[in-house]
Amino acid sequence: MIKRWLQFIKESNHHWLDTDDVKDAFISLQDEGYSISVGKAIFLADDQIIWLNPEDDIISLNPEYYFGFQILIEKSREKTDDVTLDFKSAINYLRAEGYEIQKVWDDEDLTSVDNLHFAKGSIITWIPERSEKPLTFNEDDFEDGDIYIETSSVGIYIYQPEKVDIVAKDLAEIYDWSGYTTDSSGNIYCELDIEDMADYLLSRRSSWKDQLVNGIDNYESHYYQPDIQYFFQYNLKKENEILAVKALIKELGGLKEFIKECDNENLEEKSEEEVINFLLKERFYSTLEPLCKDSEIIGDIRQTIADWESQAHCDQNQKELEKEFDRIIGREGIEFSKSRKEGKRYYYRKIPGTDRKEKVYYDEIVWFYQVKFEERWISDYGKTLSGYSLKNVFGEWCSDCYFENELNPHFSDWGDVDDKALNKEIEAILKNYLKE
Q: How far apart are CA 343 and CA 213, in angstroms?
């Protein structure tokens, strides 16, 4: 049973009625070989009821509309019985359900539902000069003023005269867009990875575009190695300071050899604990410094710290670069959210035998943007883009806008290292070394 539109909209939150329900009203014509197709239609609720063609017309979210259907009937290949009464019954059924006829279209654009006949597989417009004269197929019976037209198809446009507001999800169905998600309010969203967003919104010559998409290359870590004083005073927690000196003692051959290398009379005849305590309290770590500079294990720990510092600095500036890009998106008035998941990144590889380079893609966790549809994507440049994916609708709008944005990030001189996690790794390295 076909529901009235207002009830339907309340129950289904702006989903279209199944077109099969309308098609089934013409089941008798289908049984006689007539082809019936039903499409969703929308009509502008103005002084005149105007059918809007999604291929050509821009449908906005502001005016009120009528919802309905476009019914196309094509003639049968068979010489069938007269099913005109069945056709009229179907029309009466739709009218009883609250539908009105907006127009009937045929090759001559002369007909109406009351003048249509379906007999012998044909679609006939019969408008006799004398209104009571029945349809005849015998040309000898035609009189002056009789109109007899056979057509291959006829289109019937029906609507429910209940004004409704449409939401973005309705536009997506009207324009047959694909590749979108919806929310409970009828908004629609397309998803793009950070590379696509950058391609749409940044200048092709943007100096930071590759770093935004693929990440900033790691900075050279040897620049981040701490000096010995900073190493003990700030990088290591207390427990790791002690483990580091113990590792140094082991590396130099034990406590006696270590004390000899220290060449400090204050350490003579002292226990390991007393030696460690003295060295860690000594001003400027004067005794430890020359020993640490030549130590492999201390060098490994300092390099570990340098790697963490380098990565933290890289991550900090990557966040700043992404923040700058998000600021550009917001400045263009684009509503979005974003999340990280598996996607694609790339690097450039030289094509053998040429001076050209090609992109080589690999899997990586990257940013994906969920972009909310806005009416201006189609209204700004008068493009309906029927049958497109929503992502490509957005891309066409961006292309027409000629965005030439540049990234101007404000980079930091350092990054924030997770000292707790770093010291946990250092502790594991030192303990493993001492167990060997």
A: 11
Sequence letter at residue 243: L
> In the chain, how many H helices and how many E strands?
16, 12
CB contact at 8 A, 275 and 319: no
**Phi, psi torsion values for 100, nearest 5 degrees:** -120, 155
Count CB atoms within 10 A of the CB of residue 17.
Answer: 19
Label residue 1 by pLDDT band (50, 70, 90). very low
Short-list 284, 283, 285, 266, CA closest to 275: 266
* 262-297 pLDDT, tens digit each: 999 999 999 999 999 999 999 999 999 999 999 999
DSSP line for 156-204: EEEE----B---HHHHHHHTT-BS-EE-TTS-EEEEEEHHHHHHHHB-T
Please report which confidence band the pLDDT of residue 108 belongs to, taking 50, 70 and 90 as the band edges. Answer: low
Q: Are the C-beta atoms of 108 and 153 separated by less than 8 Å?
A: no
**Shortest CA distance to 63 belongs to which of 162, 161, 164?**
164
Least confident of 34-38, 64-68, 255-259: 64-68
119-144 pLDDT, tens digit each: 999 998 888 888 888 888 888 788 88
Cα-to-chain-centroid distance, residue 48: 38
Q: Which two tokens stand for residue 93?
A: 């059924």
Q: CB–CB of 385/375 below 8 Å?
A: no
Q: CA geometry: angle at 93 spanning 88 and 94, to 5°?
A: 100
Q: For 138-153, what is each residue's pLDDT tens digit?
A: 887 888 888 888 889 9
> Which pTM was predicted?
0.76
Phi/psi for 185 (5° steps) reads -95, 0
CB atoms within 10 A of CB 418: 11
What DSSP character marks residue 26? G
Bridge partner residues of 344 (DSSP): 363
pLDDT, tens digit, 9 for 90 and up, residues 39-51: 888 888 777 788 8
With tokens 């000196």, the residue in question is: 245
Residue 100, number of CB atoms within 10 A of its CB: 15
Q: Which residues of 118-150 are buried (b: 16+ CB within 10 A; e: fewer)?
A: bbbbbbbbbbbeeeeeeeeeeeeeeeeebeeee
